Structures are given as structure tokens and as C-alpha cells.
């Protein structure tokens, strides 16, 4: 299975009334260098929550924009790639058919799916839709993140090719286990067992198993404690 990909990078900018962000990205054609930290020229604000080795690249399915544009007709013209700050945009790859641990060949590089993207309050500011982060989370239209397991030259001319499937947990299932289901220790164990799962998600699931409760999503979704 080969999927053509559009590639985007961004610089950190200041946003009135919100914190600095590199959500605004521009398309890059031609060859780029992909390192363990991500694409050369791509920046991330707030390194604690964005970026890091398990979150080197963000991928968002282009077809979801049709859903958001019809849900919010007044903002419809904003819902085009890369409006959610994604690096990679495709048609045909969704949370349902991409799995935690999937390894893709992309030109010279190999990348591995680590987790769904956890929507944060910045998208609410970016689109002026007060609850967009929670709508993304509830609908499972979150996109996903990758680690880089073999760096190298990459290009928008080179397709993504699935070379290894390492788990039976789709990105959509992972989001449902984390956010949609009531406390379910067996499902947390299933997610922890998925090869390739990010360290931060493994930590969250293990904390739930030890504490017997689900943490609050409010600080991430709404930007408040």
C-alpha cells in the first residue's frame, strides 16, 4: 500500500491571547532531512508537550477537513491542510486503518506510529471554536504521531509505504481506550502491550492501572487546571 504525502513545516509564532505556537505550517516540496527530532526547519513551541522523539512528526488525514468544514460552515475556508499543524497529509490513511506501531518506509527513512495526537486547547484559539479540541477527541479525528526509527532524506515525491504492522490496536482504538471508554483495566493492558506505543501514553495507562482512576483531560483541552 502506497500513499502520496504532502509535507509541511512551521516556525513558532506569537498568537494574541494565547501562547506561542508553530501550528501555522507551509508546504515544502523537494528533499528534506528527517532526523530523530523531526523535519529540518520544523519548530515546536512548548517542548514539554510537543515534539520529543516519540512525537517527531504529526500526520492528519486530509479527508477529515470535509467533516469539519461542513460542521462549521462559517470557518469552512480555514479547514484545509495543514490547519491542525500537521507535517504529513494524505488521503486514504485514517485512524481506522493505521495502527499503533505501524512502520512506514518514507524515501530513505523509516517512521513508526506511536500514539493518537492528543488535541490541545490551542486549536480552539486557532479556529476561534471554543470546544474544537474536545470535539476532535470525541470524534476520534485526531491524527497521529510518529517516531523516526531510521533518519534520512525524505521528499513529498516519495510515498509512504507500510512495511511492518506490529500491533492489533488501531489509532482509533487507542483513542477510544484512552478517552471514550469508562475505566477499563484490561483495555489499558491491551494498549500497553501495543509495540511502539509512546512513552507518555505508556506512562498514562500504567498510572491509571496503579491508581484505579482516569486523569482529568481539562488542562489539555481547555488550557486550565
From TrEMBL:
What PROSITE patterns does UniProt report for this protein, alphabetically?
A: MOSC (PS51340)
Q: Which GO terms describe its molecular function?
A: catalytic activity; molybdenum ion binding; pyridoxal phosphate binding
MOSC domain: from which residue to which, for each copy? 26-163
Protein name, please? MOSC domain-containing protein
Q: Which organism is it from?
A: Pseudescherichia vulneris NBRC 102420
Amino acid at each position: 500500500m502506497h500513499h502520496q504525502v504532502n509535507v509541511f513545516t512551521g516556525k513558532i509564532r506569537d498568537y494574541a491571547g494565547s501562547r506561542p505556537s508553530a501550528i501555522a505550517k507551509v508546504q515544502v516540496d523537494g528533499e528534506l532531512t528527517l532526523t530523530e527530532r523531526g523535519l529540518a526547519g520544523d519548530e515546536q513551541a512548548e517542548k514539554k508537550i510537543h515534539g520529543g522523539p516519540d512525537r517527531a512528526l504529526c500526520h492528519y488525514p486530509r479527508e477529515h477537513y470535509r467533516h469539519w468544514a461542513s460542521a462549521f460552515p462559517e470557518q469552512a475556508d480555514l479547514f484545509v491542510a495543514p490547519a491542525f499543524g500537521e507535517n504529513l497529509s494524505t488521503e486514504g490513511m485514517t485512524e481506522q486503518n493505521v495502527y499503533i506501531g505501524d512502520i512506514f518506509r518514507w524515501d530513505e527513512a523509516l517512521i513508526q506510529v506511536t500514539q493518537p495526537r492528543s488535541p490541545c486547547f490551542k486549536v480552539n484559539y486557532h479556529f476561534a471554536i471554543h470546544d474544537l479540541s474536545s470535539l476532535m477527541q470525541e470524534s476520534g479525528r485526531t491524527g497521529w504521531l510518529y517516531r523516526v526509527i531510521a533518519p534520512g532524506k525524505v521528499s513529498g515525491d516519495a510515498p509512504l509505504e507500510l512495511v511492518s504492522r506490529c500491533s492489533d490496536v488501531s489509532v482509533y482504538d487507542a483513542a477510544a481506550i484512552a478517552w471514550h471508554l469508562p475505566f477499563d483495566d484490561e483495555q489499558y493492558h491491551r494498549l500497553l502491550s501495543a509495540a511502539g506505543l509512546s512513552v507518555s501514553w505508556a506512562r498514562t495507562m500504567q498510572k491509571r492501572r496503579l491508581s484505579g482512576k482516569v486523569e482529568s483531560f481539562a488542562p489539555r483541552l481547555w488550557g486550565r487546571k
